[in-house]
Write the structure tokens for this entry.
Amino acid sequence: MVVLAFIAELGRVRPLKPRGVAKIWREDGGVRDGEAAIRRLEEAVRRLGEATAGRGRRGLRHDEADDVAGTVDTDDAIGFNPLPLLRALHEYGAVVAVMGQVAGIMHGSGELTGDLDLLWDGDRGQAPALAAGFAAVGASLADADGRAVRCEPGAFGLAKVLFTSAGASGDCCTPALRWGDLPVGAFLDRCRVATAGDGLVVRYLDLADLIRMRRAVGRPKDLRRASELERLAARGIPER
């Protein structure tokens, strides 16, 4: 009965018609061309495909990644492309922000990655849209301990959901997760928003917030990537 109820709910949650907007608005009133950030991600996907071409699988998931090399050396990097999932979430009206190295790439980082980290506000009203977006790409979900959960709205009552799909695996988290002194709710409020010419919208953490998160986590790969982002900020890499 639960599955049937979700199927009925999914039938009511339909993709939104993409808006043909080619620019983004920031809260400070500024207007930025957001396509460059998405182009960086597309280029990183292309480079990763070349780097992993012909590489055999070793049974290593993204959550088992080395703290130095990161997820680029895991099986989840093979065929990694987060754009179909990000598009599905956008089209079903789910408001999520990209964090982690995918956000770093969108800011100009040259390091590749094999996982997608997402942040959303935890509002249960978003749960049907999230479930529909993940279901649209055939994603499987699990709780923080790796126990499988159905891809339905109830799964998003968890503070952290692990997901696996053909194009991207990773985590989908809320501010209810233990973040220490990081004000992740505020990070969501001031995230950047990139909009492609075809209407795809991708939200991603602001550069300063991403650096702060990297420094707080403190693994070797996080500190290395934080330093890279700080260099990019100091050089004033344009967002256009």
